[in-house]
UniProtKB/TrEMBL annotation:
Pfam families cross-referenced by the UniProt entry: ABC_tran (PF00005), oligo_HPY (PF08352)
Family: Belongs to the ABC transporter superfamily.
Membrane topology (UniProt): Peripheral membrane protein
Molecular function as annotated in GO: ATP binding; ATP hydrolysis activity
Alphabetized PANTHER family for the sequence: DIPEPTIDE TRANSPORT ATP-BINDING PROTEIN DPPD, OLIGOPEPTIDE TRANSPORT ATP-BINDING PROTEIN APPD
Residue ranges, annotated region (Disordered): 261-281
Assigned GO CC terms: plasma membrane
Identification of the protein by name: Dipeptide/oligopeptide/nickel ABC transporter ATP-binding protein
Residues spanning the signal sequence: none
SUPFAM superfamilies attached to this UniProt entry: P-loop containing nucleoside triphosphate hydrolases
Annotated source species: Streptomyces purpureus
Length: 324
């Protein structure tokens, strides 16, 4: 059984004529011990999808479909079960550690809180566990007495990871875990995440706009555009040779070390992401697509097999088994 399965997941903000679709019919699977990356431009729905996994969206959001964690549907769980699952089953590392941490509480108290709330440790045992967690993520145990503003951006991100690990989850959802960090610190945090996932046998779902980071960190990669997954497959294959024109455009936006062509400016993608409240007809990418055909505005292509363990939603993709 897969650890996490998403079936036809939709997320809509507002109701009636004011309803805005943020996630539209997403199907994804994450196996135990696997690392799955979700990429796309700002506004594509990837962070909304991450929050939907644990029902952390505001009341104005309506979620439908199935989100199965270890076979249990998160969307139909009673409050008590959901509360436990949010820590012991899956935990999340939010964007922007400074905004996620309580500025007036010591970080040790914040890391210990889930242990105490769920009755997993006595106060004395929780203090010991906090020290172990801080050292596990590369910080001295003595930093437990520090306040968030006394730490650097990279240190605060390590605290967020320690907090996510506190109750021993099977899945960590990392939403842009390296946002606003310089390149060297980003590399340190990414290596830390990889190390912890391997050592603790944890599955990872990482959200990012950076295909290069996800290709280097994850096993599989899903590319989202306008609320839908338009391509999915082995991370390095999608990064190196995307089947969907949007995936190719994202990949081309990042220079590659050792590639003489990378000396030139990275290629951009003309136009802006569509307004979710007024999506284009047919394939939502067709107004920006360099290879769009006349019929692309009429019908949205479904995800189809594009090779071993690969799927893409584009009329230019020849389904596996079809005559070329």
């Amino acid at each position: 059984m897969s650890l996490l399965t998403l079936k036809d997941v939709h997320v809509t903000y507002g109701t009636g004529a004011a309803a805005v679709p943020a996630v539209r019919g997403v199907d994804l699977t994450l196996e135990a011990g696997q690392k799955l990356g979700v990429a796309g431009e700002s506004g594509c729905g990837k962070s909304t999808l991450a929050l939907a996994l644990l029902r952390l969206l505001p009341p104005s959001a309506r979620i439908s479909g199935e989100i199965l964690l270890d076979g249990e549907d998160v969307l139909t769980m009673k409050w008590g079960r959901l509360r436990a699952v949010r820590w012991a089953g899956a935990s999340i590392v939010f964007q922007g550690a400074m905004h996620s941490l309580n500025a007036v509480r010591r970080i040790g108290d914040q890391i210990a809180e889930p242990l105490l709330v769920h009755g997993l440790a006595t106060p004395a045992a929780a203090r010991t566990r906090v020290g172990e967690l801080l050292e596990h993520v590369g910080l001295p145990a003595a930093r437990a007495d520090a306040y968030p503003h006394e730490l650097s951006g990279g240190q605060r991100q390590r605290v967020m990871i320690a907090m996510a690990l506190a109750c021993g989850p099977r899945l960590i959802v990392a939403d842009e875990p390296t946002t606003a960090l310089d390149v060297m610190i980003q590399a340190q945090i990414l290596r830390l995440i990889e190390q912890l996932v391997a050592e603790d046998s944890i599955s990872l779902l990482m959200i990012s706009h950076d295909l290069a980071v996800l290709a280097d960190t994850c096993d599989r990669l899903a590319v989202m555009y306008a609320g839908r997954v338009v391509e999915e497959g082995p991370a390095r294959e999608v990064y190196d040779a995307a089947e969907h024109p949007y995936g190719r455009a994202l990949s081309a936006a990042f220079p590659r070390i050792g590639d003489p062509a990378a000396r030139r400016a990275p290629r951009g993608l003309p136009g802006d992401p569509p307004d979710p409240s007024a999506l284009p007809s047919g394939c939502t990418f067709h107004p920006r697509c360099p290879v769009a055909l006349e019929g692309c505005a009429d019908a949205a292509p479904e995800l189809r097999e594009a090779g071993p363990s690969r799927r893409a939603a584009c009329v230019h993709v020849v389904p596996v088994g079809s005559p070329s």
